[in-house]
Amino acid sequence: MPPPKQTPEELAAEAKKAEEEKKREEEKKHTDWFNGLTPDTQDYITGLRNENAKHRTGKTEAEKELEAAQKKAKEYDDLLKKQAEDQGKYKELYEKTATELDATKGLTERIKSLEGTFTLQLDEALKSLPASMQAMVKESGKPIEKQLVMANEIKAEIAHEADGPGSTRPGGGQPLNTEE
User: Fold this and answer.
1) Can you spell out the DSSP letters for the chain?
2) Does residue 41 sit within a domain?
3) pLDDT above 50 (res 180)
4) Which of 19, 50, 155, 169 has its CA at 20 to 30 Å from residue 121's CA atom?
5) 123 occurs within a structural domain
């Protein structure tokens, strides 16, 4: 009668069992050899094996320091990149602001020029007004261009009143239209 056929699982289990047996025999050979040595020699070999295992499994101090240095270098590099990006943004902002400032300087010069012109015109208009009217215009607290308009209106009103009802000027004695 033929032997019963084995399942693949049973065959794999037998192969594994045979491998383990072979390993035990080899370990026994090594153990027998090792056990034949003096205790001092055994301690020395054990120490060498442990040191070797430490180098194989753990990182050395130099490797740890290298990793830490690489990490710091990467952080520093990232910081430099961020600073460069920020610097680019600040440069753009500076250039934009400088352009706006130049435009503002031109406007400021024009405003000062106009203010000077208004001041001269106001001084001329005030010369023809009585002192009380001059003080009223200056102390009105209005901007200079409004003071000029006010002084010119007062000057026109005084001139109109001076014409009187028998004036030969057109519109003499008639009230001024000041609704503009």
Assistant:
1) -PPPPPPHHHHHHHHHHHHHHHHHHHHHHHHHHHHTS-HHHHHHHHHHHHHHHHHHHSPPHHHHHHHHHHHHHHHHHHHHHHHHHHHHHHHHHHHHHHHHHHHHHHHHHHHHHHHHHHHHHHHHHHHTS-HHHHHHHHTT---HHHHHHHHHHHHHHHHHHHH-TT--STTTTSPP----
2) yes
3) no
4) 169
5) no
Q: Look up residue 104 and give its two tokens.
A: 């503002």
CA distance 155 to 167: 17
What pLDDT sits at residue 77?
A: 92
Q: Rounded to whole angstroms, how far apart are CA atoms 86 and 132?
A: 62
Cα Rg for the chain, rounded, in angstroms? 53
Q: Residue range 63-88: average pLDDT?
A: 90
The rounded mean pLDDT for the chain is 81
Does residue 152 have a pLDDT over 70?
Answer: yes
Mean pLDDT of 27-55: 80
How many domains does the structure of the chain reveal? 1
Task: Count Cβ neighbours within 10 Å for each residue of 91-122 and write b for 16 or more, e otherwise.
Answer: eeeeeeeeeeeeeeeeeeeeeeeeeeebeebb
Range of the domain at 20: 12-48
- Please check whether residue 30 lies inside any domain of the structure: yes
Locus of tokens 């001059």: 134
d(CA 121, CA 145): 9
